[in-house]
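To fix ideas, we quote verbatim a fold written out as tokens:
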Amino acid sequence: MHTLPLPLARLAVFTPFSKLSDEQLILLSYHIEICHAEAGSEISPMGDSRLEELFLLNGQVEIQSEKHDVIMLSAEDDRSRFSLLNVRPSPNQIISHTPVEYFLLSPEFIQSLQAEYSPSDQPLAEILANEKSHPLVIKFYRSLLADNISLPALPEVTLRVSKAIADEGNVHHISTLIAADASISARILKLANSPLYRACQSISQLPEAIKRLGLNATRHLILAFALHEQHQQLAPNWIRKRLLRSWKESIQLASLCYVLAKKCTKIPPEEALLAGLLHNIGELPLLQFCDQYPELANDPDYLDQIIQEARGQAGAMILHRWNLPRSLVVAVQHADTWFYEANGEEATLTDILILARLHSLAMNDASPFAPNIRQVPSYEKVSPGALTKEQRLEILEDAKEQITEIKNLLNH
């Protein structure tokens, strides 16, 4: 099961974050990795010298002072709105009384979030970017944080279907909602009857198609099919061309992600397909912003640099607002981080996305700056097959028909 991002309202409960804007809270959520501890575990030793602050999300802990005084504290208590490492008297030892969830943050990062900013001087823009960022990237983040750029909304059909699945999971009700969109209905039926699902018997009704695909797969696929509309906005011709290129790239990547997930991991292939389609959704607000700079139309290389630097963070903000699983948010955020390395030995969506991007670039000879595929951490976590000039990728070569089938479904 993939963990959803922490709701912004839950983060705002903690006193250091109570006055932060929604955009700041979204940024905060990207830096949080939830830790788990069983009952009786030592979370923080006496005189802990760590540099992070510790915040309790769920469960109950015992805080024991140097004088052996014990305080019982649960996540619902008022004092849990502060860092547990600041509970007095100190120094103290923190032991989980029940299974608990908590997270750690550096004081410097918290102070950066709390710093006041104005449209002309926003520390957050510099946090999202870095000292080597293009000036336009910093301007983009400033506009984004000042709400001068609108992020795309979750497609309406996806919103309705997701709510129906969460509320009741009634297949006939869900099929009625999907049937309101003839294009998506047709593609759901076509996919359910395709060789991808080894269909031995043809079906013609949406309820049967949903049962064959499964509710979670249906939800992911509906969003995937609805995304095309996000790339059809009114814009100057040069931006429309860039949007069309972006959509074609996402279709290619989604196909590769689907096949890699299905053949090499336990991750649902529909979820990997969605990650591939979403990997560059951050380009939508970026291109909306770049519309103010028509000179970029004549400098596509510079435009590509700007987009590659900022689309991951912008895309993660969009997916967080859509309340999509954290695994998808993280994958999109780090799609351009070749040497990203998640904790654990199991392959993640991020691993699949990074590997699929490298395969795609190698197949198209598209980037001389991409690293050797065998050098990235994701390579060892996803069964890679052979990749040479003579034999690109055995797994994907064997799956050409599947890739073509997926591309046809997404291109309509």
